[in-house]
Amino acid sequence: MTRYQIKEHKATRLGFGEALVELGHENPNVVVLGGDVTGSVRTDLFMKEFPDRFFSVGIAEQDMMGTAAGLAVAGKIPFASAYGEFAAGRPFDQIRQSIAYSDLPVKICASHCGITVGPDGATHQSLEDIAIMRVLPHMIVASPCDYHQAKKMVKATIDLKHPIYIRFFRDNSPVYTDPSAEFQFGKADTLIDGKDVTIVACGLQVWEAILAEEILQTEGISVRVINMHTIKPLDADILIKAARETGAIVTAEDHQRHGGLGSAVAEFFAENLPTLQEFVAVNDTFGESGTGEELMKKYGIDKDAIVKAVHRVLLRKKNR
Amino acid sequence: MKSTPFDIIELKEMARQIRRDVIKMLMISKSGHSGGPLGLADVFTSLYFHLLKIDPQNPKWEGRDYFFLSAGHLCPAWYATLARSGYLPLSELTTLRKINGRLQGHPAPAHTHGVPGVEIASGALGQGLSTAVGCALGLRLDKKSNRVYVILGDGELDEGQNWEAMMTAGHHKVDNLIAIVDRNHCQIDGRTDNVMELEPLAEKWKAFNWHVLDCDGNDIEQFISTIKQAQSLKGKPIVLITHTFMGKGVSFMEDDYKWHGMPPNEEQGKRALRELTPTKYGDFIEFEWEK
Question: Smallest Cα–Cα separation from A131: which of A254, A315, A291?
């Protein structure tokens, strides 16, 4: 059986929206920019509570990022939010120059990330955002695994001196982390300990990894599951320990296999401790319409895909 | 500003000195933009030596007016102005575009290896109006009386983000913001009318709910009086369509788009410096051939 119990199903984007309201009460400098999709990205909650500190810029994400940067220059703590593709892809140059190069503490909060945004299809499925955000100097990149962690993560951004990109998901998803557990950027969580193989996952794939472990333990495989909620900077210590103790890594994410969490982990190991690794990610292709669950299965980023990747990496480990 | 504002005679003299500085900086760097910075020397001088509330000894002074240069390539004139007003040592003007220096080819703020007085990076065109609008919204939220000024190039208005920002500023009635469009009709490929027609420019800004004023940006008295008029306007953001000549002050550069992105060679630099006679403020460097 799984070692984590689902307490309820709630969307990570809701955790973001609720945390914003709490931050709004705690800090008068918190301001939020709206790009028309406020009900979807859940900044509507802040807008209703603090209308004076909410600025609508219309459907104009490039202007949104520049306006957020200007608010930061004036000493405000701006949160800019849109769907992943339009929070990272569309305004890339604005983020690069006005936010990252200028090193301003803007919080870019992207909802509806990954293929699991589902029926809207490939135009709205942000599968490249981790890659293009983590390549930017000064930028922190993170993705919470559930509603509670989303909330804690957003609240922890308040002390950051650098820009951050956070990726949330549309669908309701299992809530299973402890709301009282400590959270720190760059310090990953070991959710399940194990000695044969380590699954390093982020976002919704952390739950898929937990489900995969449940299957693998019945086969007698001892699996470690790490929630790498901060993709940049990676938790180096936990990765070195996992490589030394298990000698095989599977990364899992709702993102292209090139440039995402898997790439970041591979880059880290290539330089520090070359380790066998298999990638669970979308394989250099665009998505299509469907439900999140159907798409995770078809594009190979669900628990079954993780189980297969574990089998592959263990075979390589055995034949080494 | 915290020191006494310059009078018109001093301003004209300082503008000429800043033009000399720009020429010398570019002769040393052998790279950078000549035409735009020369055209804007009167505007920069008027702002930093007469109009802006600033404290060069304390660039982050909370009571300051915020200045943004959206068209970052115009920075040689800005760096010269910052040095002349006390943000930088004059000697640093020799380091434009040089490795390990702070005078980046396009400006960056002090905390990312740029210079004091620069609030945010610019150079990728079309981004400065959004940041200026954001800054103005933030100041208004704090009920501060500081104003926000931003200089935009006219060619830069081709970038769509400007029009998003114009809508945002109009929508939020950001009347603590004054945008200055450097209307010199030149961009790197040619005349703005040939590359991309901007007219009717004033009508476009009006249609986006801005107050629109018009002035000669190479006439210091007129520019200052127009800014003062702009400061009295309420209820909408204000734009000054500021007519300048690219290359102003150097006869063979004036109104010629070929000087947009080119530095003078030594011969051209010498000619330019002969036309821009020395001032009481003195050059930041004396070349061997001047001794």
Answer: A254
Q: Does B69 touch chain A (CB under 8 A)?
A: no
What kind of fold does domain A189-318 have according to CATH? Rossmann fold (3.40.50)
**Which among B122, B124, B139 has CB closest to A74?**
B139
> Tell me, what's the pLDDT at B187?
95
pLDDT of residue B290: 93
Structure tokens at A42: 């859940």
CA–CA separation, A189 and A80 (whole Å): 27
DSSP state of B211: E
Element (H, E) at A279: strand A276-282
Instruction: Specify whether A61 is catalytic.
Output: yes
Q: Which of B61, B120, B145, B171 to mutate to test the interface with A (most CBs of A within 10 A)?
A: B120
pLDDT for A129-143, tens place per residue?
999 999 999 999 999
Q: What is the CATH number of domain B8-283?
A: 3.40.50.970
Angstrom distances, CA of residue A213 to CA of A154, A164, A294: 28, 31, 21
The 10s digit of each residue's pLDDT in B237-250 is 999 999 999 999 99
Residue B17 has a pLDDT of 98
Note the ipTM here.
0.96
**Mean pLDDT for the stretch of residues B123-151:** 98
Q: Which pTM value belongs to this model?
A: 0.97
Q: Are the Cβ atoms of B120 and A94 closer than 8 angstroms?
A: no
> How close A280 comes to chain B (CA, Å)?
36
3-state secondary structure of B64: coil
Q: Is the per-residue pLDDT at B2 higher than 70? A: no
B127 vs A98: CB contact, 8 Å cut-off?
A: yes
Q: Which residue intervals of chain A bear CATH 3.40.50.920?
A: 189-318
- pLDDT of B1 > 60? The answer is no
Residue A230 pairs in a beta bridge with A142
Between positions 202 and 261 of B, the ones with CB within 8 A of A are: none
Evaluate if residue A319 carries a pLDDT over 80: yes
The CATH class given to the A8-175 domain equals alpha beta
Token pair, residue B70, equals 């959206």
Say whether residue B131 is in contact with chain A using an 8 A CB cutoff.
Answer: yes
Which is nearest to A46 in space by CA: A36, A32, A61?
A32
Dist. CA B205–CA B228, nearest whole Å: 20
Residues forming CATH 3.40.50.970 domain(s) in chain A:
8-175
Phi, psi of A302 (to 5 degrees): -100, -170
Residue range A142-169, pLDDT digits in tens: 999 999 999 999 999 999 999 999 999 9
Domain segments of chain B as ranges: 8-283
Do the chains contact at A66 and B160, CB–CB below 8 Å? no
- A151 DSSP β-pair partners: none
